[in-house]
Amino acid sequence: xxxxxxxxxDNSNLRQALSAMLNAVPExxxxxxxxxxxxxxxxxxxxxxxxxxxDIDMPEVNGIQGVKMIKESSPTTxxxxxxxxxxxxxxxxxxxxxxxxxxxxxSIGNQLIEAIKDTMSxxxxxxxxxxxxxxxxxxxxxxxxxFGLSKRxxxxxxxxxxxxxYKLIAANSFVSxxxxxxxxxxxxxxxxxxxATEAVSKALKYRIVEMD
Length: 212
Known about the structure:
By secondary structure, the chain is an alpha/beta fold. Helix content is 50%, strand content 12%. The chain has 10 helices and 5 strands; from the N terminus they run βαβαβαβαβαααααα.
């Protein structure tokens, strides 16, 4: 069954290009595309996409407001922010609103396709530069804790923080993708989180993972 995608992007040329690129992937179907988040919650309720791609800077109702609207009405719908913004405030606003991933538009291409597949597997993708921004925000007040993670779980979490896809984590760790999913499920349980963005945030906040 194809993964149904809804796209929110105000740039009409980019919106059309993204739709064409994603529709060219055999297992993807873009079921709707919108220039802003006016009635975003109603669009999601009526079409029930499997994943949402969300720009931030849009007229009338922006992407951060859109995430809040969608998560209030459809809390389990995964949302990947796809934006040019890399400043701390917008990153944290998006994550706090409930975004499940955060990619820069410079990542458009294979990384976006992998991000959608990872999100559909229960994970999410965060550009490495975004993870570093989160780390810098927490560095001054961080209190180190390990939450009882095993050595292998910590290694998997390190790669998740670095923005690696499940496929790359599996290859780097010489295990199957199903094994990676199992490790990540255990990580979520031990950290008491529900998404990859929450896991990354907590990993950096409590210095479970150290990044230079």
